[in-house]
Design brief:
Length: about 425
């Protein structure tokens, strides 16, 4: 198949005006100006017209099973207060509620241009049934805690691995996610690091998300520290440095690790992340919901950290007006642009495409339109100049006009 479009953003080269993408099977064979395309016998051509054609978006952090909590939890005074709110909200949910919520979230991502998502699975029993219900590429990270249940770390890990070993799918993958430093014990972090390295898996962890977590590990004090102490957490790992430094001591930093949020940095943390090639996933709307300190993007970039974008969950997204928020990477990109005037539209789009692919071990395969990359792409209406194409992507609202995953239309273009 040959796709023709007014503008093509490949993310590997400058924008192409009146461009063509030649697709063979489930891969991109070539990307070039239409005038340079040699005729191919018996190859179907689809002229998409006045659109920007670009790689499908990569959501590097999501909680699909919390989608239906959209608008239910007003922004709390503290992060610990929010933990209480969501725990209470989840207590009344059934398996069917989680499944319905997961599928609603997958549908929202699909119609707004995401083609690959890294999802945290608090309810892994939903898999593989929900996998089969979506064309998205899903990286399912099975969430592990163990503090409240008082289960030994080896038992927590063994249970997760047993579930993963039963999950086989040509498009989706399951891996590990220790929830956060405060909700897990050091042994579980060390065991996860060893297992992920041995199996060549990505792994992800929420870290340094709040000031309460930062105070807990840096100074062994604060509301989170005291609350967890009352709940019999062994806090002997606190007071020894920042949450990021804590992960370094447990050997859970590296190029296969996605550090989620990283909103609070101590001196040297950015360098530590950069030196270990750890990826950082920023979730702008969630960041705004909690009113976290300013995200130190420039410091992380200077340290060589690969920065990605994620939606987080709709349980941590502000309701604007009467409409409930939806999972939408374009909304995340605009939120980042509004909060950080020093970053270009192109840089933001890279965070939502090629950078996310790199974090998930898909460099050269997803998040770009290049030879041998997956034929995962989306189209947006556009009648402007090439020089304004990146800005137009950030300004886009609503559904995409077309979406393709693995060479198949999942949202067909309008004829």
């Amino acid at each position: 198949m040959i796709l023709r479009a007014r503008t093509i953003l490949s993310l590997t080269a400058p924008p192409i005006e009146d461009g063509a993408v030649f697709i063979e099977g489930n891969r991109v064979r070539s990307v070039m100006p239409w005038k340079n395309l040699r005729p191919h016998v018996n190859v179907k051509t689809c002229d998409l017209g006045e659109v920007i054609l670009l790689p499908g978006l990569i959501n590097a952090h999501c909680h699909l099973d919390y989608t239906d909590m959209a608008g239910q939890l007003p922004p709390p005074k503290t992060f610990v207060d929010w933990i209480g709110l969501i725990t209470a909200a989840k207590s009344g949910w059934s398996y069917s509620d989680y499944a319905r919520s997961w599928l609603h979230g997958a549908h929202q991502l699909l119609k707004t241009g995401t083609t690959t998502v890294a999802d945290i699975e608090a309810m892994p029993d939903l898999l593989p049934e929900v996998w089969d219900a979506t064309p998205l590429r899903i990286f399912s990270f099975l969430e592990m805690t163990g503090i409240r249940s008082k289960r030994p770390p080896k038992e927590v890990l063994a249970a997760a691995l047993a579930q993963i070993d039963l999950l086989k799918h040509p498009r989706h993958r399951a891996m590990l996610s220790p929830h956060a430093p405060y909700s897990t014990l050091p042994e579980l972090l060390r065991l996860t690091a060893k297992t992920a390295n041995k199996r060549r898996w990505q792994t992800c962890i929420h870290v340094a998300e709040s000031m309460e977590e930062f105070a807990m590990f840096q100074n062994a004090e604060g509301k989170m520290h005291d609350w967890l102490a009352r709940n019999e957490r062994d806090n002997s790992d606190c007071g020894l440095g920042s949450p990021v430094a804590h992960l370094a001591r447990q050997k859970l930093l590296g190029e296969n690790v996605l550090a989620i949020h990283v909103n609070c940095l101590a001196r040297g943390d950015a360098s530590l992340l950069g030196k270990n090639k750890t990826h950082v996933v920023h979730c702008p709307r969630s960041h705004d919901y909690f009113r976290h300190p300013k995200f130190e993007r420039e410091k992380l970039v200077k340290a060589g950290v690969n920065l990605c974008l994620g939606t987080d969950s709709l349980a941590t997204t502000r309701k604007v007006g009467k409409a409930k928020p939806e999972l939408d990477m374009f909304a995340e990109m605009r939120a980042l642009a509004n909060s950080d005037k020093s970053i270009s539209a192109e840089e933001i789009l890279r965070m939502a495409t090629v950078n996310g692919a790199r974090a998930l071990g898909l460099a050269g395969k997803a998040g770009e339109l290049s030879k041998n990359a997956f034929a995962d792409l989306i189209a947006l209406p556009y009648t402007g100049k090439n020089s304004r194409a990146y800005d137009a992507v950030l300004a886009h609202t609503g559904n995409v006009t077309a979406s393709m995953i693995a060479g198949r239309w999942v949202i067909p273009p309008q004829s």
